[in-house]
Structures are given as C-alpha cells and as structure tokens.
Amino acid sequence: MTHRLYLLGVAAALAGSTVVLAQAGRGGSADLQQATQLIRDGKPDEALAAVKRELQANPASSQAANLLDTLGATKDARVVFQKVIDAAADPAAKAAAQRAMAMSYAFDADCANTVKYEQMVIAYWVTREGAEPQNAFYQEGEMANEAARVCIDSGDFSAAETWYRKGTELGLKEPAPQTHPQSLWHFRLAHALARLAARHGQAAVAAKQVAEARKALDSDPTMAAQQERFFPYLVGYVALYTNDLKTAEVELTKATSATGNATDPFMQCLLAMTYEKLGRQAEAKATYEKAYGLATAHNPPAAFARPFARKKIAS
Q: Which of 19, 85, 142, 207 is deepest in the core (most CB within 10 A)?
C-alpha cells in the first residue's frame, strides 16, 4: 500500500463528515445563507424561521434538514430526510440520505435507530464489493464504527462494543492491494476498547488498551501521521472517566491544541467536563460555549456536543 493511496482513503473518510454551516452558507439559497449566519450569531429562533422558509420552497432539502438537527428540531429534520430517501435518484444517493438519517437520530442520542440506518448504508456497500472491493469494505467498517461511536456517546456500551468489533471485522476484509492498512483498524479497536473500559471504570483494562493503541501507532509511521492526533484525546478521555483529572486536563489540552483537532467540539466538551469536575466553573462554561459554537457538522462529534453543551450552558 502506498502513502498516496492511504492519504486518498483518509480524504474519502473525511468527506463523509458534512460540515453543515459551510455547505449551507456557501452556494445555498438566500434563506439557507441567512439561517447559517443567524446560527453563528446565536439567534436560533430566527435561524429556524429561515430554515422553514427554505423548506416551503424546497421540501426535500437535505441542507435544511441538517440545519434543523443543528437547531435541535430533530423530529422535523427526520421528516425531511425521509422525503430525501424516498426521492433518491439511485442507490448511492439513497444510502447517503440514510446515513444522514442515522446522524439525525444521533442528535437525540438514539443508538438503536442510528444503528438501524447505518445498517442500511452498510447493505448498500455490500452491493459494491464486486465493483470496488477496497472502498466497499472500508466504508462498511466506517459505517459500523460510526454507529458504535454514537452508541458509546449515548451510553449503550454493549451495542458500542458490538459495532466497534464489527467495524474492525469488516474493515479487515479489504482485499489486496489494500488502500487502508490493518494497523488502522487495530488502532481504532484498541482506542474504542480503552474508552469503553474507562466508561466501565476498569482503569487497568483501559490502560492495557491504551498501550495497544500506542503499539499500533508505533508499528506504522504512515498511518500514525494521520492518527497520532487522536492519541492524546484517548489518554485524556480515559483519565477523565477514571477520575485522574490532572492527567485529563494535560492530555485534553494537548489534544484540543493539536493540528486538525482545534475545531473538534467533542474534545472541547471533554475538556469542559474536566474543568467542571475540577470545580473551575468559569472555564467549564467558556469551553462548553466554544464546543457549542463548533458543533456545526452532521457527524457524531457534533451530534453529541451540540445538545450536551446546550444543556450545560443553560443550566
């Protein structure tokens, strides 16, 4: 596997994360552009009115539905996403809309329905195994991991472990010539199992899996060049949930400062949670506000951070 092929695979994976405000604000209708700006300005009621005007003109606007999720109007968003699914021109478009529906449920921390729709997306990629086997198996693994991420964030640890293991199983089926290294899937599974152990309060098990994640990174410098930035986040996450708050602050500060992580709202939430546990309420509130402002994508980090930070800010 060449370095170039792996980078192409990373780019394809990143393309699956819809940056809602960027999409709606660039090249969208006047109402979508206005809604985007109003969200940035902290005027959700006015933004919602602008989105509704867009839907009067375009009832199957996936961009409008994305913004509805960002604004907390998730039930309304899913009515629109169903229209997009029903009107899909081809199986690929239908799978994309089903993935958006899965993320809409993620904004409500609904693990079961997220899994339901991610399975539909996986079923589409199964049909592509003959034509594009490398990408198909990679995408199957990605969708399973995406479902797992929503499940762990919503507190369903059993489902999360099931789907993280399934994601690894599917990803490792990618045939030669592999465009995504096996080390990537080993790193991701160790990363996930460490977080799950931490959530169960199993500090020793979590530490063992952190070491496995480190081993996977060290085994493949090319993979590590893309994934290293997720390691301090892992160490900080484990420290937070095993009550080592000093380490959590150090590692999560490092994580949120790393290139590529500065706009990750989930990491900002973890840092805010750390400040909150340390009794530093002013820093916690400021960091929750930052997380809320950054949570403008239609993906698992934003699906957790937007509603979670909204509640924290209001309390």
A: 142
